[in-house]
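Sequence, please.
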């Protein structure tokens, strides 16, 4: 085996030597890097107007560079200009500076551009030219008065460029502040005088001077008052202000305090006091101002100024920000490279705020593309080099505090020449194969069977077989690739350990590439393989990640986040989504906000809390890639809550011990730097303030008055100031101090409790409580008590001595002490307990038969058996430990103890497999865990929605989108499907959204088609399993692109089937499209609806009008016929006279209105008749007597009336409810016309059954099903009435059970009519009887007892008089069967019967008196028969009415 390896090493050494010789021979053909750089660059400057000035610029190069200048990014054209010119050394000279209100041509940013034809072009840093100016005073001195020995400060602030010099004048004379101690002119321009004296009074003013001009402030008067004698709490007369400076500058933070006595001013930073001693960069300037020399970035932060004396304290804070101009950490280097290789120029720049980095090639800004990529916002990467990429490359970094640049040269080396330096490109082949051209030695043939194994959107995996002729060992392979049609070819190399496959990355989606492979042996590159063409997969054109993401705290509750657009936008960026989350809360609580710009300020954040931010860009295809997270903490603030558990303990007559705990952690809002204790004597207006360190928890207030009550409160402080204080706590100092002129007495008792290695000691204080006790001293040791000593405070009553030896005698003594000395001790001795021998460690038998029975998705019952028990009864102190764990990776065990043979484990996760085991413990003995048993908890409905829902458009199909998502984080069981919701109105209820069910639980993508183009849709998704559905995911918006025709609604079913795999889609689709691309808009829909409604209303109106007009014409014709003459009877069913063709009115059927009420319940007056309701049925019919009447008579024939004209009657007395809308017509009772209007109740004559009666042939055929049988009373008789004449009245309207046809019979008896002649004017008694019916109390009460049949129509009455016996009921208790009628007290006259027509109400005829002993007689089953007849008659009437209406 040694021989082949030795041969391999020889061949490798030989090939390396050949390669080195070739490289050395080719060095003369490689161009060397030339010196080309700026020796002097222009600098920012401020100049006066109308004076000459010059920008310096010097470039070194061979040949000498050509110099040009740019102003604000544009080349200056100086041809023929005399005022500005370029000197031989390249400097730009201005003969004079022009600057006025209307013209400022010289101010701006200038750059020097140097070019060398054979090398390229470089650009200098930017330099700003400003014209000197001096603004007006921002702050001027104000007249003031000050007490002696206080501090005086006068303001003078003005802005100018360059910064003006400030000097002060007193009474017109310059103040030589350098010669007088205590007088200071601060950098801000303020004048500060410490310990003012009377000689400092006078008139003061300040003067500001710079290159532009000189300004004087107003002169003010300063008066000095006598020194204060009373106490004055510290007062801030100057507060520190937030400042921003540049690194290396000197900064002064101002803070001045006045107090009596003088206050001590302390500066602190980060909770620590600042050392202002000699040798430090920090010093005190003037009275108490903090000066920081050579400011560093680490000096940034919050500074606090605290002034305090014995009577109080004040604090104020200010933030200092130290910015850093750009500076290079790594600069780009000159580079050699071959064509088709990839290189990367490094450029690492640090600045604060972060700089903007750009790259320039030969003076032109590099625009990022597929081949020129800016990595991490800094480095420049060039892919697939070509010859034209040679030149000078510059990295330029800029922020508001400066600009820097660094350049590097790129030289492209011929393919047959090895690289002369070790600055190899990223993809250069190994040095043993530096050339691709054939050599005299045999090289490999082309690799075979080159195929693309995997083709993705941005990478392709290639594989191939080794060449058929290798001519030695293959040491490397190179894959050359380029876009089809491009000459910029790139290369990727393989290694010795993976020669036959490679992944080519950083490709573009939907792009055709050409790949070829070249193999290398020791002699160099071989032949190329046949090229293959590969098309990468298409990719949704979503944006790349946003760049330059930055987050900066702007307040304790706000952070400003800014970023730059993505390098790869893939369309127009519609908006950005800013995600943020509190670091302590976890990613599940991440929030988001939509932003249309490139920055956003989040408000309402927690104070002094870390937040993480990331940004996602959105274009028309959906969300792009997320940026990396940026973490920043909000600024600190004062605590939001006071300290807790504050207590006060008087220690003496002049001291109180204050104790407290810090505020709740979430209310610190920063680092607690100190605590402020304010206390005052009760009744005093002012108090005192003391401060302690931030780590202190108690403080002793001394110097208090004896026997006084003090109010004390505490507040916590951060660098921002004091938080809210506690409530006032009150404590009272005793009148006299405890006696400390003698030592304390002996403690009254001492108790010890020994353990194996410790002793617990407790005691009680001495009996004499008037002696001061400062604390207790505990001494202990083996055999004697003073071997060890512990001191505790006077409030302690017990102590535990640790680390003792077992089974040893210890002597313990306790004594109290005070300032005078130690008191009398008390002793106690005890033995510590001996070490106990552990119980045998023989393991117990583990439980057996462990079972886990699942009870619910979150609980399982674990049972087991213990073979060491008798009858499974636990009689000792053993217990069992149940252990369980989910079968997930990195799961941990949970434990629970049980004293029985079962235990219910709760708080389990649904649909999770757990393993359970049990062990038994008895004293110090315990068993191993039993054999494990596993079981899975029941399923539960998902507890979280599907995640990461994205909506992606389909290219070329504006009506379709692809939805992608991830399963719920807490599925609680196998997901069986999903429900897609979408709509155009997110405010709709979930039930009104369009939804598509997905029946496959493993499906994580779905295509929604047939959407409306150029419409914003809202999507959300819901998962389901066998137990229920999950919460709904957050809503995702998507705007469909414009263009294309909408789908035909007729094809929705087909589209739905293809979308959801056969599952039906909800019918409330948001798309309302018509065929042919026509869209039925809402406006057109409303127009169509309005037209349909209008046409419908018009048709209904015409029909109603036609019917009403027809009825009115019929009514008019009837009224005219009535007024022309009287109706004539009809013989044999035919009408005679001119009205024979008039159609009888329809029968009006209304059951409720037929229940008529009595018009007057009062007793009748003389000459009047009592009206009664119309009878509802035959049971209510009563026999009546005839009564003579004067006046016209009625002819009881069908449709005829003989008597007074209708116009002479008055119906005004008819009740309004029953009053007809017009004057009543002659009463007709046909069954085929309209019902007559309601009438007043009248008496009705009826035909009684008589053996001699014979039915009379009806004048017209009987109406079907109108005959019925009724049981008629066997005998009814009535005596003749003394009244001879009875007026004929129109018959009453019949109820729905009183309809009869002419000639109809009732129980075989026909209704007959008795004619009367005008001369007779008498009523002949016949078988016909009249009765008055009373309204029953109940609607059916009238049917309780059968009665005589209802009256017949007039033309059905017999023409021959019929004899009958008529009788009148005896007076008796009223019943529903009869209503007694009153008769007139005297005979009726025509005047009585027919009064004035205006007041006429047709009365019924009076009842004749009945002979004594006559009364009704009825059968028992009459009611049943009558009710059956009534029901049949009602059905007939309903049929008649319906047939009439249908006509």
């Amino acid at each position: 085996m040694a021989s082949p390896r030795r041969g391999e090493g020889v061949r490798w050494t030989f090939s390396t030597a050949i390669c080195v010789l070739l490289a050395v021979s080719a060095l003369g053909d490689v161009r060397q890097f030339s010196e080309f750089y700026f020796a002097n660059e222009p600098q920012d400057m401020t100049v006066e107007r109308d004076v000459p000035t010059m920008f310096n610029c010097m470039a070194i190069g061979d040949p000498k560079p050509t110099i040009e200048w740019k102003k604000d990014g544009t080349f200056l054209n100086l041809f023929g200009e005399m005022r500005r010119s370029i000197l031989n050394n390249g400097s730009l000279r201005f003969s004079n500076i022009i600057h006025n209100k209307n013209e400022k041509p010289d101010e701006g940013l200038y750059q020097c551009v140097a070019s060398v034809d054979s090398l390229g072009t470089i650009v200098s840093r930017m330099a700003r030219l400003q014209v000197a100016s001096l603004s007006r005073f921002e702050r001027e001195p104000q007249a003031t008065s000050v007490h002696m020995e206080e501090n005086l400060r006068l303001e003078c602030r003005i802005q100018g460029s360059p910064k003006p010099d400030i000097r002060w004048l007193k009474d017109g004379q310059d103040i030589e502040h350098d010669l007088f101690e205590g007088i200071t002119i601060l950098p801000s321009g303020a004048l500060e005088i410490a310990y003012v004296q009377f000689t400092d009074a006078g008139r003061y003013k300040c003067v500001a001077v710079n290159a532009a001009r000189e300004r004087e402030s107003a002169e003010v008067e300063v008066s000095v008052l006598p020194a204060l004698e009373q106490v004055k709490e510290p007062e801030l007369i100057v507060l520190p202000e937030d400042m921003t400076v540049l690194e290396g500058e000197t900064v002064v933070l101002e803070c001045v305090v006045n107090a009596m006595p003088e206050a001590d001013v302390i500066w602190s930073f980060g909770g620590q006091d600042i050392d202002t001693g000699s040798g430090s960069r920090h010093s005190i300037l003037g009275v108490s101002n903090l000066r920081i020399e050579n400011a560093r970035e680490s000096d940034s932060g919050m500074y606090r100024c605290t002034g305090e004396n014995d009577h109080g304290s004040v604090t104020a804070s200010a933030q200092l920000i130290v910015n850093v101009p750009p500076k290079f950490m790594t600069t780009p280097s000159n580079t050699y490279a071959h064509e088709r290789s990839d290189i990367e120029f490094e450029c690492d720049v640090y600045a604060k705020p972060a700089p903007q980095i750009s790259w320039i090639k030969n003076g032109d800004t590099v625009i990022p593309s597929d081949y020129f990529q800016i990595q991490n916002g800094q480095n420049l990467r060039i892919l697939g080099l070509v010859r034209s990429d040679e030149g000078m490359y510059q990295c330029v970094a800029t922020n508001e505090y400066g600009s820097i640049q660094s350049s590097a040269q790129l030289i492209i080396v011929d393919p047959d020449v090895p690289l002369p330096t070790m600055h190899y490109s990223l993809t250069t082949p190994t040095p043993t194969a530096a050339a691709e051209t054939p050599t005299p030695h045999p090289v490999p043939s082309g690799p075979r069977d080159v195929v693309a194994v995997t083709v993705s959107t941005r990478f392709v995996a290639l594989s191939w077989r080794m060449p058929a002729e290798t001519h030695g060992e293959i040491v490397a392979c190179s894959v050359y690739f380029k876009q089809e049609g491009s000459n910029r070819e790139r290369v990727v190399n393989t290694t010795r350990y993976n020669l036959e496959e490679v992944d080519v990355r950083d490709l573009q989606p939907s792009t055709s590439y050409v790949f070829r492979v070249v193999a290398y042996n020791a002699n160099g590159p071989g032949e190329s393989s046949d090229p293959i063409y590969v098309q990468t997969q298409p990719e949704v054109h979503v944006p790349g990640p946003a760049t330059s993401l930055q987050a900066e705290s702007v307040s304790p509750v706000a952070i400003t986040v800014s970023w730059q657009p993505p390098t790869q936008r893939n369309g127009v960026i519609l908006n950005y989504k800013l995600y943020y989350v509190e670091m302590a809360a976890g990613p599940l609580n991440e929030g988001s906000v939509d932003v249309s710009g490139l920055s956003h300020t989040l408000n309402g954040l927690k104070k002094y809390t870390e937040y993480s931010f990331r940004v996602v860009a959105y274009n028309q295809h959906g969300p792009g890639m997320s940026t990396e997270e940026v973490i920043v903490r909000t600024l600190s603030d004062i605590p939001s809550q006071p300290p807790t558990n504050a207590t006060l303990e008087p220690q003496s007559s002049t001291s109180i011990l204050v104790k407290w705990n810090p505020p709740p952690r979430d209310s610190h809002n920063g680092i607690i730097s100190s605590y402020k204790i304010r206390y005052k004597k009760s009744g005093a207006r002012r108090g005192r303030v003391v401060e302690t360190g931030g780590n202190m928890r108690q403080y002793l207030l001394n110097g208090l008055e004896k026997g006084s009550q003090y109010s004390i409160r505490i507040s916590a402080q951060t660098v921002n100031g004091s938080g809210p204080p506690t409530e006032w706590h009150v404590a009272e100092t005793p009148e006299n101090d405890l006696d400390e002129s003698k030592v304390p007495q002996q403690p009254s008792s001492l108790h010890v409790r020994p353990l194996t290695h410790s002793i617990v000691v407790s005691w009680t204080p001495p009996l004499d409580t008037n002696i001061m006790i400062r604390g207790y001293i505990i001494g202990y040791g083996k055999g004697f008590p003073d071997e060890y000593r512990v001191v505790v405070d006077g409030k302690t009553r017990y102590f535990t001595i640790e680390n003792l030896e077992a089974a040893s005698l210890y002597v313990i003594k306790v004594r109290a002490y005070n300032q005078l000395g130690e008191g009398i001790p008390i002793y106690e001795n005890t033995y510590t307990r001996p070490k106990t021998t552990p119980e045998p460690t023989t393991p117990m038998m583990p439980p057996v038969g462990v079972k886990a029975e699942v009870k619910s998705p979150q609980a399982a019952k674990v049972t087991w058996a213990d073979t060491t028990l008798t009858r499974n009864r636990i009689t000792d102190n053993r217990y069992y430990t149940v252990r369980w764990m989910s079968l997930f990776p990195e799961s941990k065990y949970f434990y629970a103890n049980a004293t029985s043979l079962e235990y219910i484990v709760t708080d389990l996760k649904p649909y999770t497999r757990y393993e359970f085991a049990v062990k038994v413990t008895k004293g110090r003995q315990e068993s191993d865990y039993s054999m494990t048993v596993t079981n899975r908890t029941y399923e539960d409905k998902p507890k979280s929605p599907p995640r990461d829902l994205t909506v992606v458009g389909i290219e070329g199909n504006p009506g379709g989108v692809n939805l992608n998502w991830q399963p719920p984080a807490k599925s609680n069981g196998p997901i069986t499907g999903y429900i897609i919701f979408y709509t155009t109105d997110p405010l709709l209820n979930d039930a009104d959204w369009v939804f598509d069910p997905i029946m496959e639980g493993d499906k994580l993508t779905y295509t929604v088609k047939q959407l409306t183009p150029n419409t914003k849709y809202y999507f959300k998704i819901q998962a389901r399993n066998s137990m229920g559905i999950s919460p709904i995911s957050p809503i995702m918006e998507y705007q469909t692109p414009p263009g294309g025709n909408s789908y035909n609604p007729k094809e929705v079913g087909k589209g739905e089937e293809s979308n959801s795999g056969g599952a039906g889609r909800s019918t409330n689709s948001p798309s309302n499209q018509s065929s042919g691309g026509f869209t039925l808009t809402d406006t057109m829909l409303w127009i169509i609806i309005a037209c349909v409604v209008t046409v419908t209303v018009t048709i209904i109106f015409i029909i109603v009008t036609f019917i009403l007009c027809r009825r009115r014409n019929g009514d008019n014709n009837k009224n005219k016929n009535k007024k022309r003459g009287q109706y004539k009877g009809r013989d044999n069913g035919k009408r005679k006279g001119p009205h024979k063709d008039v159609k009888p009115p329809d029968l009006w059927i209304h059951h409720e209105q037929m229940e008529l009420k009595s018009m007057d319940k009062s007793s009748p007056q003389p000459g009047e008749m009592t009206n009664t309701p119309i009878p509802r049925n035959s049971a209510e019919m009563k026999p009546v007597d005839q009564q003579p009447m004067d006046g016209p008579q009625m002819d009881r024939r069908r449709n005829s009336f003989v008597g007074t004209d209708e116009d002479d009657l008055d119906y005004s007395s008819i009740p309004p409810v029953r009053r007809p809308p017009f004057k009543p017509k002659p009463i007709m009772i046909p069954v085929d016309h309209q019902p007559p209007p309601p009438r007043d109740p009248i008496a009705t004559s009826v035909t009684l059954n008589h053996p001699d009666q014979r039915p009379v042939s009806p004048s017209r055929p009987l109406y079907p099903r109108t005959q019925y049988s009724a049981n008629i009373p066997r005998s009814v008789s009535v005596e003749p009435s003394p009244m001879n004449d009875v007026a004929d009245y129109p018959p009453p309207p019949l109820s729905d059970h009183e309809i009869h046809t002419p000639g109809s019979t009732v129980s075989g008896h026909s209704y007959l009519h008795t004619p009367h002649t005008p001369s007779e004017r008498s009523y002949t008694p016949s078988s016909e009887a009249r009765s008055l019916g009373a309204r029953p109390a109940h609607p059916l009460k009238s049917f309780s007892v059968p009665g005589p049949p209802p009256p017949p129509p007039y033309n059905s009455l017999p023409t021959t008089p019929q004899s009958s016996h008529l009788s009148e009921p005896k007076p008796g208790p009223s019943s529903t069967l009869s209503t007694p009628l009153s008769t007139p007290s005297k005979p009726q006259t025509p005047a009585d019967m027919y009064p004035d027509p205006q007041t006429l109400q047709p009365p019924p005829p009076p009842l004749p008196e009945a002979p004594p002993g006559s009364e009704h007689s009825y059968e028992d089953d009459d009611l049943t028969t009558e009710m059956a007849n009534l029901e049949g008659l009602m059905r007939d009437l309903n049929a008649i009415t319906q047939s009439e209406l249908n006509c």
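The first strand starts at residue 36 and ends at 40.
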